[in-house]
């Protein structure tokens, strides 16, 4: 029963983090803003790819759930793995021109057959956050941000 409550709490937390947005359009045509645009003589910077790495380790063989969220200029993405073998590692490539001034990353994992579980988020090899939780069916959460 404890697994069900913790899993439900994780799902609700993940849904709350994803947020919602909507756009309303009116019947009027958009104004022509071409004249207001300015020309830049500087060449545009080429987008480079950066790596966000989500890692989960523990003393068990698997995690009951691993949920990771990425919020950046290219949008947001969320994924979940159930009964994920440990150690778990997922690398997400992000073009640098898709990073916000401050992009947000989140990782939540729940132990299954172990009593210790750890998470770590890195961006280009730099540790953003790492945490450890202990106890039967323990839950660990890492979150943080990175700048352009």
Summarize the structure.
The protein is mainly β and 148 residues long. The protein has a single domain (2-14, 49-147), classed as Sandwich (Immunoglobulin-like).
Query: What is the overall silhouette?
Result: elongated
CATH fold-level name = Immunoglobulin-like
**Low-confidence parts, pLDDT < 50 over ≥5 residues?**
1-42
pLDDT averaged residue by residue: 76
The first-level CATH class is given as Mainly Beta
Q: Could you name the CATH homologous superfamily?
A: MmpS1-5, C-terminal soluble domain
- Give the name of the CATH architecture: Sandwich
Termini separation comes to 43 Å
Computed structural class: mainly beta
Order of helices and strands: HEEEEEEEE
What is the number of helices?
1
Task: State the oligomer.
Answer: single chain
Major beta-sheet overview: 4 strands, antiparallel
Q: How much of the residues is beta strand, in percent?
A: over 45%
What is the CA-atom radius of gyration, in angstroms? Answer: 20 Å
For the biggest β-sheet, the strand order reads 4-1-6-7
* Proportion of residues in helical segments: 10-25%
Describe the structure.
- The chain is mainly beta.
- The protein has a single domain, classed as Immunoglobulin-like.
- It contains 1 helix and 8 strands, in the order αββββββββ.
- The protein has one helix at residues 2-18, and strands at residues 49-58, 62-72, 75-85, 88-95, 102-111, 116-123, 126-134, 139-147.
- Strands 4-1-6-7 form a 4-stranded antiparallel beta sheet, with no helix packed on it. The protein has a 4-stranded antiparallel beta sheet with strand order 3-2-5-8, with helices on one face.
- A hairpin with a 2-residue loop joins β2 (62-72) and β3 (75-85).
- The longest helix is centred in the N-terminal third of the chain and has 17 residues, at 2-18.
- It starts with a helix and ends with a strand.
């Amino acid at each position: 029963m404890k697994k069900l409550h913790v899993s439900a709490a994780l799902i609700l937390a993940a849904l709350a983090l994803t947020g919602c947005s909507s756009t309303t359009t009116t019947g009027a045509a958009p104004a022509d803003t071409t004249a207001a645009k300015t020309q830049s003589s500087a060449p545009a910077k080429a987008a480079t790819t950066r790596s966000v790495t989500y890692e989960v380790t523990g003393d068990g063989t698997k995690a009951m759930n691993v949920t990771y969220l990425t919020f950046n200029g290219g949008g947001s993405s969320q994924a979940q793995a159930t009964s994920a073998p440990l150690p778990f590692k997922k690398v997400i490539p992000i073009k640098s021109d898709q990073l916000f001034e401050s992009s947000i990353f989140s990782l939540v994992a729940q132990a299954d057959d172990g009593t210790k579980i750890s998470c770590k988020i890195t961006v280009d090899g730099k540790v953003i956050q790492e945490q450890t939780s202990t106890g039967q069916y323990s839950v660990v959460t890492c979150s943080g941000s990175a700048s352009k």
